[in-house]
Specification:
The chain is mainly β. The chain is built from nine helices and 28 strands. Helix 3 packs antiparallel against helix 7 and helix 6 runs antiparallel to helix 7.
């Protein structure tokens, strides 16, 4: 670690700044050329956050009279009397004149003082607004948690990060709900490589989130350079501390005026280094370093007639990787499958982690909403990436999706028992009536073994698809895990939505759960199991005492419950 104070420009502290003082800033408005803009200090906002200040200014020059403060200007260094005072970092939505805020340089240097040469091998991943069981339970239901749930509300004055590159459809954009980003489709620029911005204060840079058959990048401005170390943005990316993200030089195609938030159309040009720290007052990186990307493959089988293969590289990031993988799925399906009419999508694949068994991916969606399939993939990755135990190393994501122009959907139309009483140790036959979308019915039989350890008295037979059974847990017991391996086992044991299940459940004293299964209980319904045996909580808890599986290879929907008397 090397201190940033070893070299760099002269600085001016907040205590020296007064309203009416004038200065200038550096940023790129077009191509790679760094331009100058002017500003006048309006005042200093004390305690914009505890112990933090913000210098409010009115800017002028370039296109600012028409656009206001631009997203992509974040990090633009600002000077008074040749001394660096900080980085332009905030704007005001729907503003009629270019008024913005500057993060004081002292705050940036304080938070980003020591930048690690090497990427962190272990990163604290549990986010302060979130409990691990919430992520797991959402994953078992195939539902991603949105950004605000993960991190809480952000700074409303912070300039949104402009994500540029491939055009995203409505389903893909919904996956980013709550993220402080705006999406803009920008064609690849001819001659753009000759227009790369210089790597100096005021230069334009981009963070490549995704590349390959889909491109997405975030852009901002360099504030400070000291040897191989650079400071950027003047605000957080995601405020996750040590990170390892790819950093590219960038060029600006043009600026776009908007009543809500104007922005630069910027495109990455060439890799120049890697980000290593992400703090509330800015991000910092090392020039010449390399960041690791997560490889992803999607094979799309179009009704057995032809198969399309796509490859992507995703940013390795606790919150972004899941959103990026889901985006790749949603965009692939949106671009190559039908939008009107009957359609079913089936997915198989795996997520490979270093030192862990592969996580099996299996899902069937019987509708025209690719967002459900994308949510499923993203939810599995959220459960992995946001585990509180260790940083997972994702070797790769491999998916095969088959699109059929028919509706493979089955509903559970009825359940009946041949007898309402069952003896301990005997087999309980269960008849389930299934109905497809055309109204055709068929009957299948489950045989559930009633264990000899069952308690005499009432039991509940639950028959349904995996998602409905998981959601039916009324107790919402915490899923206790002790390692990343426990998380992997829970995900691999998840009840699927292309099978029908029969579960025999009894209310019994707390059964205990610490990442391991009890009497063959599937991990996906571990939340149905009672409290830890060492707990003082002696309330009756639901416990699965028997189970059976009926594979159907089409989407199943529905849930029925019957009462059984155990003798």
């Amino acid at each position: 670690m090397t201190s940033l104070f070893a070299q760099g420009p002269a600085t001016m502290g907040v205590g020296e700044i007064r309203a009416g003082m004038k200065g200038y800033g550096r940023t790129v408005f077009q191509g790679g050329k760094i331009d100058r803009f002017e500003f006048e200090v309006l005042g200093v906002q004390k305690n914009a956050a505890p112990g933090r200040s913000r210098i409010m200014v009115r800017a002028s020059g370039g296109p600012l009279a028409e656009t206001g403060i631009l997203a992509g200007m974040s990090g633009s260094p600002c000077y008074i009397d040749g001394k660096l005072i900080g980085a332009l970092s905030t704007g005001i939505a729907f503003e009629k004149e270019p008024i913005g805020g500057i993060t004081p340089i002292a705050e940036m240097l304080d938070q980003l003082r020591d930048i690690p040469e090497l990427a962190p091998s272990r990163t604290p991943l549990i986010l302060p607004k979130l409990e691990p069981p919430k992520v797991l339970k959402a994953a078992l239901l195939g539902q991603m948690l949105d950004f605000n749930t993960l991190t809480g509300e952000g700074d409303p004055q912070a300039l949104p990060m402009a994500l540029v590159g491939s055009a995203l459809g409505a389903e893909a954009q919904r996956l980013w709900s709550g993220w402080p980003v705006t999406f803009t489709a920008v064609p690849t620029l001819s001659g753009g490589r000759e227009d790369a911005s210089p790597i100096e204060p005021g230069g334009m840079v981009a963070i490549t989130l995704m590349q390959g058959d889909l491109d997405l990048a975030a852009s901002g401005t360099i504030t400070y350079v000291s040897g191989k170390r650079v400071l950027l943005f003047g605000h957080q990316l995601f405020n996750l501390g040590p990170v390892d993200l790819p950093l590219w030089s960038a060029t600006v195609s043009t600026t776009v005026a908007s009543y809500q938030n104007s922005f630069k159309l910027a495109m990455p040009v060439a890799p120049i280094g890697a980000l290593r720290l992400d703090r509330s007052s800015g991000v910092a990186g090392i020039l010449g370093a390399e960041a690791r990307m997560v490889p992803m493959r999607i094979g799309l089988n179009l009704g057995g007639k032809r198969t399309l293969n796509f490859r992507f590289e995703l940013m390795d990031h606790p919150t972004a990787t899941a959103a990026l993988a889901a985006t790749a799925v949603a965009q692939t399906l949106d671009a190559h499958t039908r939008g009107i009419g009957l359609q079913s999508l089936s997915m198989q694949g795996n997520i490979k982690l270093v030192g862990q068994p592969a996580i099996v991916i299996e899902n069937v969606i019987a509708d025209l909403n690719p967002g459900r399939m994308a949510q499923y993939v993203g939810a599995m990755l959220q459960a992995i990436c946001l585990n509180p135990f260790e940083k997972p190393v994702i070797e790769g994501i491999s998916l095969t999706i088959k699109a059929e122009e028919r509706l493979d959907l089955t509903a559970i139309a009825g359940v009946r028992l041949l007898k309402a009483r069952a003896k301990r140790g005997e087999v309980l036959p269960v008849l389930v009536t299934l109905q497809n979308i055309q109204g055709v019915r068929e009957t299948a039989t489950f045989n559930i073994q009633v264990p000899s350890s069952a308690t005499k008295g009432k039991a509940i037979l639950m028959v349904g698809d995996g998602y409905s059974l998981t959601a039916a847990d009324p107790d919402e017991r915490v899923i206790e895990t002790a390692s990343l391996g426990d998380v992997v086992r829970i995900l691999n044991g998840a009840l699927r939505n292309n099978h029908a299940y029969a579960l025999l459940v009894q209310a019994q004293p707390g059964a205990g759960l610490r990442g391991s299964r009890i009497e063959g209980i599937p991990p996906s319904v571990a939340s149905l199991v009672g409290g830890d045996g060492a707990s003082s909580d002696n309330r009756l808890q639901r416990r699965i005492i028997g189970r059976a599986l009926l594979p159907l290879e089409r989407e199943v929907r529905g849930l029925s419950q019957l009462e059984v008397e155990i003798e």
